[in-house]
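WARN  no MSA supplied for this record, continuing single-sequence
INFO  ligand: flavin-adenine dinucleotide
INFO  echoing inputs
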Amino acid sequence: MRRRHDRVIVAGGGPVGSVATLLLARAGIPVTMIERADDVVLDYRASTFHPPTLDLLEESGITAALVAMGLVCPTVQIRDREIGKVAEFDVTRLKNETRHPYRLQCEQFKLVGYVYGELKKIAGVDLRFGHEVTAIRQGEGEVVVEAEHDGERVTLAGDVAIGCDGGRSTVRKLLEIPFPGLTYPEHFLIAGTRFDFRAHMPDIASVNYTADPVRWFMLLQIPDMWRILVPVAPEISADDAVSDESLQSSLQNICPRSDDYAIVVRAIYRVHQRVADTYRRGRAFLAGDAAHLNNPLGGMGLNGGLHDVISLTDRLIAWWHGRADAAILDGYEPQRRPEAINAIHAITARNKKLLEERDPEVRARNLDDMRATAADPARSYQYLLDSAMISSLRRSGMIR
Ligand SMILES: Cc1cc2nc3c(=O)[nH]c(=O)nc-3n(C[C@H](O)[C@H](O)[C@H](O)COP(=O)(O)OP(=O)(O)OC[C@H]3O[C@@H](n4cnc5c(N)ncnc54)[C@H](O)[C@@H]3O)c2cc1C
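INFO  complex generated
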């Protein structure tokens, strides 16, 4: 594969695209990053970083920054609304498998803010904020991306392009790559409050998944607040779902109190389980949400996207600097796509089923099984390896 332009183009500067840009730029590869927004988007979606993601990003300095900005959470609980704690998993047991045996909570916009800051320090990185990708075409030995900026068309050429432009990826659509899967009928609502849940529910962990046949929820501690994630029935409009009344009802349902909750964050999302049919067309690649989407129960979407760009940039860097021929790029999709299906989809779908199960018998059986898993040292260890994404990365050869 010839190089005409000596440049990689990254479309989308969210967490996945910005990290890809940084990893390439640090390796001496000229990069253009094209981001529609003018600056960091205040996005509260992802906050969980799993142990091997932190191991893999250690050398780049990103892990130290995340740890400094984040909250270390050693345990994860599975709970039931009526029963309370059902099972607790101690991530610190993984200390012989990882240098970061915990879940780290740090909002994704903080990662992006840090990475933008680092990118601005590297001479020659071409950051195009306020640019929206509108077209992509591939010619002899090049990929050409068009973007709209202040109503003007800007044309940028490179040797390789990476579409990191999120779930609605323009790049994926322009490349005509199908994105099969499902969209859940319900919305997922996030509310953040500084209320101290632990003072009222002393046995909770920082990460809690609570099963309930009607109103399951996730309760998560992030550095300066607690966050809940609840499903919203399909018949309720997004506007009604984020109303004060709806948020107060969801919070009161978790921990009843006489006062209203002070709500500092509210957001609503549609959630999908989808994987692109291919992660590559010629010189154009897909990574992150552009390539795969999943429900947030397990905190795996962004982690998986970061694993994508760690795999892809390692390969690009080896090819660029002549340490491998272009065939190394062929290994990207086989390394990453099966894990989006076998690990990320399988585990997040399993987690959702566990929380929302309505049949009382199945529900009791599932909770008994969780209890038994937590009580059995070998089974709980395997559960930890799987839910921390260590099994997936080992299977795909990204870690030993
Ligand atoms: C409620 C919720 C909670 C979640 N929690 C977690 C979690 O704890 N852990 C986890 O691992 N994952 C989590 N996720 C998933 C995570 O948020 C996503 O996987 C992650 O944001 C994907 O990053 P990305 O960079 O691929 O895409 P995005 O974050 O969507 O970024 C895409 C970027 O591309 C830009 N862009 C889009 N179109 C264009 C265009 N045409 N031209 C130029 N730029 C463009 C956008 O402005 C944006 O900056 C959660 C998701 C949800 C819904």
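The radius of gyration is 21 Å.
INFO  checksum written, moving to next record
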